[in-house]
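A note on notation is needed here, since sequence and fold are reported together in a single record. The reader may check this reading against the record printed directly beneath this paragraph.
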Amino acid sequence: MNKYELIIIVSIKTTEDTRKEILDSIRNYISKEGSILNIENIGEKNLAYSIRKQNKGIYYIITFNDIPNEISGLQSLCRIVEGILKYIVVKKDDEEGR
Protein backbone atom coordinates (compact mmCIF):
# COMPACT_ATOMS: atom_id res chain seq x y z
CA MET A 1 0.00 0.00 0.00
CA ASN A 2 1.02 3.57 -0.57
CA LYS A 3 1.06 6.42 1.90
CA TYR A 4 -0.91 9.57 1.04
CA GLU A 5 -1.83 12.95 2.51
CA LEU A 6 -5.18 14.58 1.89
CA ILE A 7 -5.16 18.30 2.62
CA ILE A 8 -8.58 19.93 2.76
CA ILE A 9 -9.65 23.51 3.34
CA VAL A 10 -13.07 23.75 4.96
CA SER A 11 -15.18 26.91 4.92
CA ILE A 12 -15.09 28.91 8.15
CA LYS A 13 -18.84 29.35 7.72
CA THR A 14 -19.39 25.68 8.62
CA THR A 15 -20.40 24.69 12.14
CA GLU A 16 -18.36 22.34 14.33
CA ASP A 17 -20.95 19.61 13.71
CA THR A 18 -20.69 20.06 9.94
CA ARG A 19 -16.88 19.86 10.10
CA LYS A 20 -17.21 16.65 12.12
CA GLU A 21 -19.60 15.23 9.48
CA ILE A 22 -17.14 16.15 6.70
CA LEU A 23 -14.28 14.39 8.49
CA ASP A 24 -16.49 11.39 9.27
CA SER A 25 -17.48 10.98 5.62
CA ILE A 26 -13.82 11.10 4.55
CA ARG A 27 -12.81 8.75 7.36
CA ASN A 28 -15.53 6.26 6.38
CA TYR A 29 -14.52 6.34 2.72
CA ILE A 30 -10.82 5.78 3.41
CA SER A 31 -11.52 3.05 5.99
CA LYS A 32 -13.26 0.89 3.37
CA GLU A 33 -9.98 0.07 1.61
CA GLY A 34 -7.22 1.73 3.62
CA SER A 35 -6.34 2.94 7.07
CA ILE A 36 -6.05 6.42 8.52
CA LEU A 37 -2.74 7.14 10.20
CA ASN A 38 -3.41 10.68 11.45
CA ILE A 39 -5.90 13.55 11.23
CA GLU A 40 -4.44 16.93 12.09
CA ASN A 41 -6.41 20.16 12.44
CA ILE A 42 -4.01 22.93 11.41
CA GLY A 43 -6.58 25.57 12.27
CA GLU A 44 -7.89 28.71 10.64
CA LYS A 45 -5.56 30.33 8.10
CA ASN A 46 -5.73 33.13 5.57
CA LEU A 47 -6.09 31.91 1.99
CA ALA A 48 -3.60 33.00 -0.66
CA TYR A 49 -6.54 34.07 -2.80
CA SER A 50 -10.30 34.31 -2.39
CA ILE A 51 -12.22 31.04 -2.86
CA ARG A 52 -16.01 31.34 -3.20
CA LYS A 53 -15.76 34.86 -1.76
CA GLN A 54 -13.96 33.62 1.36
CA ASN A 55 -10.53 34.75 2.51
CA LYS A 56 -10.05 32.27 5.36
CA GLY A 57 -10.42 28.53 5.76
CA ILE A 58 -9.84 25.73 8.25
CA TYR A 59 -7.06 23.38 7.19
CA TYR A 60 -6.92 19.64 7.88
CA ILE A 61 -4.20 17.16 6.96
CA ILE A 62 -5.27 13.51 6.81
CA THR A 63 -2.48 10.95 6.44
CA PHE A 64 -3.55 7.49 5.29
CA ASN A 65 -2.64 4.27 3.51
CA ASP A 66 -4.79 3.42 0.52
CA ILE A 67 -4.95 1.53 -2.76
CA PRO A 68 -4.19 3.93 -5.67
CA ASN A 69 -7.38 3.01 -7.57
CA GLU A 70 -9.48 4.47 -4.75
CA ILE A 71 -7.84 7.93 -4.88
CA SER A 72 -10.07 9.09 -7.75
CA GLY A 73 -13.13 8.14 -5.70
CA LEU A 74 -11.81 10.11 -2.73
CA GLN A 75 -11.28 13.13 -4.97
CA SER A 76 -14.84 12.81 -6.26
CA LEU A 77 -16.11 12.72 -2.68
CA CYS A 78 -14.19 15.90 -1.82
CA ARG A 79 -15.66 17.63 -4.88
CA ILE A 80 -19.26 16.97 -3.86
CA VAL A 81 -19.06 17.45 -0.08
CA GLU A 82 -20.61 20.77 0.87
CA GLY A 83 -18.21 22.93 2.86
CA ILE A 84 -14.90 21.80 1.34
CA LEU A 85 -13.39 24.78 -0.48
CA LYS A 86 -10.24 23.07 -1.80
CA TYR A 87 -8.47 19.74 -1.50
CA ILE A 88 -5.37 17.99 -2.74
CA VAL A 89 -4.16 14.40 -2.45
CA VAL A 90 -0.40 13.93 -2.39
CA LYS A 91 1.47 10.64 -2.51
CA LYS A 92 4.20 10.70 0.13
CA ASP A 93 7.68 9.46 -0.69
CA ASP A 94 8.70 6.15 0.77
CA GLU A 95 11.09 7.24 3.52
CA GLU A 96 12.38 3.73 4.06
CA GLY A 97 15.60 3.01 2.25
CA ARG A 98 16.85 6.58 2.43
Remarks:
- The longest strand covers residues 35-51.
- The two ends are 18 Å apart (CA to CA).
- Helices lie at 16-33, 71-80.
- The chain has a mean pLDDT of 91.
